[in-house]
Amino acid sequence: MKCGFVSIVGRPNVGKSTLLNSILGLKLAITSNVSGTTRDIIQGIYTDSDSQIIFVDTPGVHKPMHKLDTIMNRRSYDNTEGVDVILFLIDATSPFGKGDEFILNRVKDSNIPIFLIINKIDKVKDKTLILNQINSLKDKYNFSEIIPISSLKNKLYDLISTLKKYLPEGESIYSDEDLTNVSTRFIVSEFVREKILELTHDEIPHTVYCVTNDYKESKDKIYVSVDIIIDRENLRKIIIGKHGSMLKEIGTRSRIDIEKFLNKKVFLETHVKVVKDWRDNASILSEFGFNDDE
Fold it and tell me: What is d(CA 85, CA 8) in angstroms, rounded to the nearest whole number?
């Protein structure tokens, strides 16, 4: 069978996590219009009758403002090494900009096949604009493949079948039942973080971080406690809301997604904690799983 690793790279908000979720057919990586939503390396495992493809969803590469941003960028670069194919995603609705050029320059000397994936084509009414974009980008680099897609609306069979041609023969690495390398506790905390970004919009920056500190499972239900970590006291009021209304809505929406993922009744508690300057504090970053020596 064909078995290999595929790295998904691109600027923030080009649809990397949406693509991963669509390929797997379930919500694994959280999505949001907020830059920097994906913060950890998430592996999604696609298995069918003749292949196993391990997709690596990376944080969007962006100009670093804090130590955390530097670590996120480094993780993205590191996870394009040793893979079999790189999927370089761009947004069909946006011009090819400096951020795209920067990422391409970082990966194009890797001697790894690079697919140019033009995403969000469903949002472009005039399809000749997509053809013009393809023609202009052919001169940027000798891409192994150029594939226009819509992560939200297209069936992605063509992408999968094309990827298989570039993967080596080998035994599967994971069992057929495995879908990801990350823990259930991590996925639960990410669902909560997604709802915070979704409901608060620009009021809460991507500095918010969520940690599952308690997870107990019985025969018919699961008890989960998640800490919401922020770095400024004034953000607490926004997340809690008037008479606790915002925190309640965050919990309700998070619980619905968690129950769909776990297929079990969930009792969810959330607690808001202020940890000042955690993005620049090496010891706190390490505590949350971000190591400066990565």
Answer: 9
